[in-house]
Design a protein that fits this description.
There is one protein chain. This protein is of the alpha+beta class. It has one domain (53-65, 83-335): Aminopeptidase. Helices cover 34% and strands 24% of the residues. It has helices at residues 14-44, 150-161, 174-182, 216-224, 233-251, 260-270, 277-287, 292-295, 314-323; strands at 53-56, 85-88, 93-101, 107-116, 121-126, 132-135, 138-141, 167-172, 186-190, 194-198, 203-207, 210-214, 271-273, 296-300, 303-306, 309-312. The protein has a six-stranded mixed sheet with strand order 13-8-3-4-5-14, with helices on both faces. It has a two-stranded antiparallel ribbon with strand order 1-2. A two-stranded antiparallel ribbon has the order 6-7.
Length: 341
């Protein structure tokens, strides 16, 4: 009795075998790239480390000059205030002071940025340049502290608002002109007719109100025009915040991928910062996917003009500081060093 032959096993056609093998190898390589990329971000761009506690002396009414540090790193011999406040920072919340600097010296723009990396939310607060502070043994406008450099402005703002300043970024206003031209202009709704000239500052601003495409020169004019508003610097700071948001939204787009190298060169030429590169990378990765229309809140320090200063409203500014969510605790008014000459 003869045995029936065994049924031959079905085999995939050779081209399907090659295709399956190729897909497997491709998926394996992509997995390695993803894992390696994630590891690289954590190694080279880990979450920045900052002091989790902030100590504030309620009795201090003056920030020492950054150049008054004792030689050889010696600290001050003054005894710490036993009534000092100790506030605990919320995890994942960072601050940065943004300064816009003109060629003639001084800073036209001062803003406090707060980034909550956990909640994926950010705040941008304008500090009017004429805000009065007590610094260097005298009352002066906050923008005048720039004579001591970026660190001096950071110290003055830290003392004024009772908040830590983790980083500062100083941008020459020429950067805005260059960036706007590099991306082909920025569409922006200019809030008022702008007609102002100041040959000393090389300012010749003639821009009608309305939605329009601004080139670099006009963008700088919109950012700098102060006399175009009845409330001077207060109106300008609101326009500055709105323009920065429009610029960010229109710069971070797929169409500008080809401009990356040019934009990086512009930043390296016109931007100074004390933020390490790995921290920049970290914040950049955390900001990916943020909706600027819903995740970004803006505001300004409220007060009134009492010549020659912008004097702050204590309660309004305190409410604003608490709304930033920097601390776990409610910030008391004595943590702020608002002065009224």
């Amino acid at each position: 009795m003869s045995r029936s032959p065994k049924r031959a096993a079905k085999r995939k056609p050779p081209f399907l075998q090659r295709l399956a093998k190729g897909l497997y190898i491709t998926l394996f390589i992509l997995s390695l790239i993803v894992v390696a990329g994630y590891a690289a971000l954590n190694i080279f761009a880990p979450e920045p480390t900052v002091d989790r506690q902030v100590t504030i002396d309620p009795d201090r009414r003056e920030v020492p000059s950054v150049s008054s540090t004792a030689p050889d790193g010696a600290g001050s011999s003054a005894a710490p205030n036993p009534d000092a406040l100790v506030l605990n920072r919320r995890e994942g919340v960072y601050t940065c002071l943004l300064l816009g600097v003109a060629d003639q010296g001084g800073t036209d723009t001062i803003m406090l940025g707060v980034f909550d990396t956990k909640a994926q939310r950010a705040s941008l607060i304008s500090i009017p340049r004429d805000t009065v502070v007590y610094y260097g043994g005298k009352y002066q406008k906050v923008n005048a502290t720039y004579a001591g450099g970026e660190e001096a402005v950071a110290e003055a703002v830290r003392d004024l608002l009772g908040v830590p300043i983790d980083y500062w970024v100083s941008v020459n206003l020429k950067a805005f002109s260059t960036i706007v031209d590099q991306i082909g202009g920025v569409y922006f709704d200019v809030p008022v007719n702008m007609d102002y000239e100041d040959p000393y500052q090389d300012l010749y601003i003639h821009i009608p109100a309305g939605y329009q495409l601004l080139n670099g020169k006009k963008a700088v004019g919109v950012m700098r025009c102060r006399n175009c508003y009845a409330n001077a610097d207060i109106g300008r700071t609101a326009t500055q915040r709105a323009f920065l948001i429009a610029l960010a939204k229109q710069t971070i787009t797929p169409s500008n991928v080809g401009n990356v190298t040019a934009l990086i060169n512009t930043f390296s030429q016109y931007v100074r910062a004390d933020m390490p590169l790995n921290d920049m990378v970290y914040f950049g990765t955390q900001a990916v996917g943020m909706n600027f229309d819903t995740a970004l809140s803006t505001g300004s320090l409220e007060g009134e003009w009492i010549s020659p200063y912008w004097q702050l409203n204590d309660e309004s500014v305190l409410a604003l500081v608490n709304s930033l969510g920097i601390y776990q605790e409610e910030v008391p008014l004595k943590a702020l060093h608002i002065v009224h000459p």
